[in-house]
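Let's practice the habit of predicting before peeking. Look at the sequence and jot down your guess about where helices and strands might fall. Then scroll down.
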Amino acid sequence: MKESHEQIENFPKEQVRSAIQAGIGQAEEQMKDNKVSYKHGYRMSNRKRKSLYTLSSVAVAFGLLVASSYQSPALASTLSQIPIIGSVFADSNSVGLKQAQKNGLTSQIGETQTVNGISVTLDEILYDQNGISLSYIIKSEKKLGEYYLGTGMDYTINGKSSGGSGSYEEKVQSATTRTAIQEINISEDMPNSFELGLILHGKNGETWYFSNPIKKITDIKKIPIHHSQNVDGISLKVEDLSLSKTGMSISYESSEKGEDFELSRAGDIEFQVVDQDGKEITSHSGGASGQKIKDKLVFKSNKKFDPINSHVTELTVTPYLFLPSDGGGVEYDENGESKDIGFKGGSLKPVKFKSFKVKIAQ
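Done guessing? Here is the structure:
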């Protein structure tokens, strides 16, 4: 018994850890090879085959690791520090993204690019009525500094640069591994399918570039609203409400006379939505894109919400201003050049909009 105990204490955990990482690397290379054949044809066949390869590799590795960890508590402790990452969408806090992943509405990419010891994997893409959602996994050979990748990816549409609003959130898995979800707000003139280019920049000048064809999901129900009101110089026009398994969105346009975007309240509109039973539909906000037209500042946006249940027959929508207490923004000129703009909105006054109802046909 004593001899066996000494063997466990001297278990070569570093060598095993290296072997695990090497195995993962081999699996990733194999997945890359499969992806090449997938691009050239037999889309479903190769995708299924790729999934089987991946699942088989994981099953074998998991069996070996569990057996080893029973023998070595030290190895079990080491393995507990290795982050296990599945679908970033499925592991998120977003009900809509979880539903999209569960119902097979996302495009699974799995493409990895490595620059300067940092590997970025574009995991999944969802294009629905709410906008474009991206998930990616970042792994580095060395510890990653805070905000190393800035605020996410820039994007192009069919090769042309496009400025827009959205959000970016990182989740730290370990000192060298992170997952990220980026939301890109869409405008009404964006095509239903196009080539999406993505460019990510690192602090030390690294650049990762991805390009993938994407297509908007088809099972979207659009309800025309055409509601408008004017309050204290702010003009609000709510065009429509869209529903799908992935969520709900409200499309609107707002405007106000002025010259300075930071002093315009028309870009700070949000919506509270409750159903016929008084239950509030969770909002995920979202920015607005604005431009100057003559003497007015005009904003457009799609505000995002969780999916609604099938029993919902009516919604009450209440617009309101969510005035910022600090911040700033980015302004683009006619040549696409950007400049930072500081915060000036501390003196903005709230207003009260009227609520309106939307019938949901069953």
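How did you do? The radius of gyration is 24 Å.
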